[in-house]
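REVIEWER CHECKLIST
Item 1: Sequence provided? yes
Item 2: Single chain? yes
Item 3: Sequence as submitted:
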Amino acid sequence: MKLVAIQNYGPVLRTNCDSSGFKIMRLINNYSLDLVKITYFVQQNFLIMKWLSYILLLPLFLINTATATSQDTDFIMDERDGNIYLIMKFGQHWWMCQNLKFDMGDGSSCYEDDETNCMLKGRWYTFEAAKKACPEGFRLPGDEEWMALESYMGMDKAELQKKYIRNSGKIGKYLKVDGGVGFDAEFAGLVNPQARDAYFETHAYFWTSTALDEKNGWTRVFEQGLDGINRKMIPKEYGLSVRCIKDADADIDKE
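Item 4: Structure as written out by the authors:
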């Protein structure tokens, strides 16, 4: 089984968040989300129609190839369920720029048990499920790889390994939804072992693959209204969002 790249559509414009260029890119990104939503519903009902996503996303490819450059980008399709993800290269790593949506069964869930919420903001995964959830050729990033992303975005080296909120470079502002660089950390909240949903639409929680001890794992947390990124430990049985990174030796077939 291989991940299929749907054609590199060109670099994403990185610009000041108040510029007209960013407003244009925001419209393009919203257009992209609408197309992915349509594609998702088609794929769930007509498996053979998964190739329709190529046609639906073609206008986006053409629009973005005309933009100024600085970020390597691509799309991949997860052949397990047909979901499509934008991927971008930040430093040495290719990151998924949407939350993972693959249904792992036990260990994964949706906000309010509503599959529509999973489609829009991704699924929640326990720590153990998160380590197995990424598609072939991708994996759950470790604490060190999150630090590499943070360093690439401008966080001071002295802050990288600190616990809790780290504010240097205000990089949380740029990695959140509509931050202007395309990473778009979604405020999907989390779920605790008692199935109590929390912080949906206000916080974004992401697992790393790095365990602190037998009961806790390292995470990254983004919060509305704050420009920093929280590096904290959370019990492994909690459900958090997942972003995957590409394995260094994984090939993506271009079509």
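Item 5: Key structural point noted by reviewer: The radius of gyration is 17 Å.
Item 6: Recommendation: ____
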